Amino acid sequence: MIRNIVFDLGRVLVGFQPDAYLRSFGYDEETVQTLLQTIFGPTWRFYDRGDIPTVIALRERLVHDYPNYEAQIHRVLRPDWVKIHTLKEDTAAYLHELKGRGYRIYLLSNLARESHAFVRGYDFFSDLDGGVFSYQEHVCKPEEEIYHILLDRYDLLPEETLFLDDCAENIEAAERLGIRGIVFTELSAVIPQVEALLAN
């Protein structure tokens, strides 16, 4: 029986579309693809892990690594870049409904400190029973350790826990530990899958 439902944040509860964000600056498609790899590429994971603690430090690291893109890096990673995390109201409403039905609700997210500070202003945080965030633990999905942290910290049984994440690799890692998983695409497709598992 499922008692615990764990949500990812990006592309599940909040929007995270860096390609659309880059296009909003008027960059052509070739530049968008280049900046996706430059700004939101491998170095971004260190920011999510908390190993790069601030966006200012991230900019410095990226400019060091990609000096030819210094102007674009500073333009894109301006102080209000976190507004990219727009609320997905339909998922937040479903989370609230599940909470009202007695399920314990948690977050498990690869998330930087500044992103967390911004998104925690959304109302759905009041429905949470807990959460694990990569920047606090210095470990990211799909690394096994972050799932153990979630299970151990909140005394969750894997077989009683359902995880919703937009990344199949993250779901596969959870399932190897016995957690039930559903790859999040769009809410209308996910709800029937969730409800089928909750009915068992």
Structural class: alpha/beta
The N- to C-terminal Cα distance equals 6 Å
Total helices: the number is 11
Q: What characteristic shape results from the CA principal axes?
A: elongated
If strands are numbered along the chain, what order do they take across the biggest sheet? 3-2-1-4-5
- Strand count, sense and closure of the main sheet? 5 strands, parallel
CATH superfamily of the largest domain: HAD superfamily/HAD-like
Unreliable spans = none
The sequence of SSEs as H and E is: EHHHHHHEHEHHEHEH
- What's the CATH class of the largest domain, please? Alpha Beta
Mean of the pLDDT scores?
97
Kindly identify the CATH topology of the largest domain.
Answer: Rossmann fold
What does this structure look like?
With 200 residues, the chain is of the alpha/beta class. It has two domains: 4-15 and 85-198, Rossmann fold; 18-83. The protein is built from eleven helices and five strands; from the N terminus they run βααααααβαβααβαβα. It has a five-stranded parallel beta sheet, sandwiched between helices. The model has no long low-confidence stretch (mean pLDDT 97).
Question: Secondary-structure map with pairings?
Answer:
Blueprint: E1 4-7, H1 18-23, H2 29-38, H3 42-48, H4 55-65, H5 70-76, H6 89-100, E2 104-109, H7 113-119, E3 130-133, H8 134-137, H9 144-153, E4 161-165, H10 168-176, E5 180-183, H11 187-198
Parallel strand pairs: 1-2, 1-4, 2-3, 4-5
